[in-house]
Design goal:
Blueprint: H1 2-46
């Protein structure tokens, strides 16, 4: 009976720690990651692509 009571208290403690500590940390981390990725995508779309070479060329055929 004592082992069952101890297991129940341990399970309740793990559940409360998961609910009040781990879940808020996961939500805050997910929100921060979403904001960071959204800002990075927006910044990449607004600046010009410096690594793209825009050039015109002419093909000369020789026979």
């Amino acid at each position: 009976m004592l082992a069952v009571l101890a297991a129940g208290i341990a399970l309740l403690a793990m559940m409360l720690i998961g609910l009040f500590v781990v879940l808020p940390l996961l939500l805050a981390g997910g929100t921060a990651l979403y904001i960071y990725l959204r800002r990075r995508v927006r910044r990449a779309q607004s600046r010009p692509q410096d690594d793209v070479i825009d050039a015109e060329y002419t093909v000369i055929e020789r026979q």
